[in-house]
Amino acid sequence: MKMATDSHVVKFRGVQLLSVEAVVLREIETMLKEFGSLDEPFTCVPDTQSFYKGYLRFVVEKQHMTALQARAARMEELPESLFRLMHLRTLILAENNLTYLPDEMSSLNGLRMLDISMNNLSGIPDVVKSLERLEELIAIEVEMKMLPDWIGDLKSLKRLRLDYNYLSNLPDSIRRLDQLEFLSLRQNEIETFPLIILELPRLHELDLSQNQITSLPESIVGMTSLRYLDLSDMGFSPFSHLVEEMEAHGCETVTSHWDPRKHNRDIE
To answer: How many independent structural domains does the chain possess?
Structure first.
């Protein structure tokens, strides 16, 4: 079922699939009220026949929106109605024209996953530090030159993706991310392996591909939790003896090709 943005919203029962356009974002709360009481949770997804950028996708459980995707919705700022969705756990705002995230976003303190990739943000906005329950943060291609020191305060983080930025190092505070399992720094400007990474006790996957790193510390072999290491596309043949040792400890190491498993996540 597809609903035009100028049509009247009526009450439905047993709704399983609803497709709406991203311009409805400012009318989300009105829509939800008019849906009334739902027999079952439902998922709102893009047209399943052909995906068009700009479609809105969201999940509603027990009349509370828990996941919202507004990818490529041409947004320059976030609507105020968004900050009243207190039950949001997943928020995807990638590929918009956002230049800032307002302080009001701190009201979404139940967020577990936030994707702000491919916006004009010049880094990760400070309001993100108030989202202390975040488990996954994706900030790909946001023109970031420095990772803020407060990143270490997001102690629930398990996944951190910072690909296609201008980072040359990492702040010492990242050592406080003792729950971090996945870290991707693909195609930044890193020339020296960040030793602080060695202090992440739960790190399972590390992507350093397409940087300018020319050597690895011998102590990387001691990262027994590491199961996947991507060192590909660095323009040299890296550290064969270290690679062999790490693979002997059960760490898959990629040195020459792009891993197709790495891509932006949408709401599933």
So the answer is: 1
